[in-house]
Structure formats: structure tokens, C-alpha cells
Design a protein that fits this description.
- There is one protein chain.
- The protein is α+β, with helices and mostly antiparallel strands.
- It has one domain.
- 36% of the residues lie in helices and 32% in strands.
- It is built from 3 helices and 7 strands; from the N terminus they run ααβββαββββ.
- Strands 1, 2, 3, 4, 5, 6 and 7 form a 7-stranded antiparallel beta sheet that branches.
- The longest helix has 27 residues.
- The chain is globular and about 40 Å long.
- About 11% of the residues have low confidence.
Amino acid sequence: MPPFHRAGPHVAGLWRSAAAGLLALALTAGAALAQGGFLRDVDDLPLAPGLTERAEAATVFDKPGGRVVDTIASGTLDRGSVVSFYATALPALGWTPRGELRWQREGEVLAIDIAGGTPLVVLFFLSPG
């Protein structure tokens, strides 16, 4: 009998909850990779489906105090789709919302700005926080 069964049903429930959380994280990351992939210079930041990164426009600094990444993506989707995608995907990857299109995780701050027009231009700015 596995050790968590001897500890009682509440411990088994915790194990099931943890496993479900890990599965949700894996599915979210897997869906992002299958649909849009990840940004080249921030390999754990998903790219919303319908966006294409302009990798040649990226600026990256790796400093002792943390990394600074400024990159751009564009596509034909609308602003609401981008906002909705990141509002769902980023918390599953450990990011905490700090305002509209502002996030924080493990000492880093992510700001996403959306410029209107066709194509829609999305700017990502990651910095120590």
C-alpha cells in the first residue's frame, strides 16, 4: 500500500490535487507549444496562437541582477484574444497578475503592451523586479 494511503484520506487528496495541478501546467504549456510556441529569448513565455515573433527585433541583456528582454510579435488577431490568452496561460506558468498585462514571477516582472493596427503588434518587456 502506498504511504499516503496509511496517512489518511486528506493526504491522499493533497497528492491528487498536486498531481492535477502539475497535469494542468503540463497541458497549458503543451497547448502553447503546439499552437504558438514560446518566445525565443524567454523560453518559458508562450507566444499566443496567431502571433509571430520578430526575433530580429529582440534586445537581450543578461546582468548579475537579472535578465532584461525586449521583444516584439505581430499577427492578425485582435487585442481581446491576446489579453485573454495571457490572462489564462501566464498564471498556469507561475506568473502573478500585477495589473492589466503586468505580471510578476520569481524576481522578474513582465509587461505586455499591445499596439493597435493591422497587423496587431505585441511588445514584451521582461526585467528584474
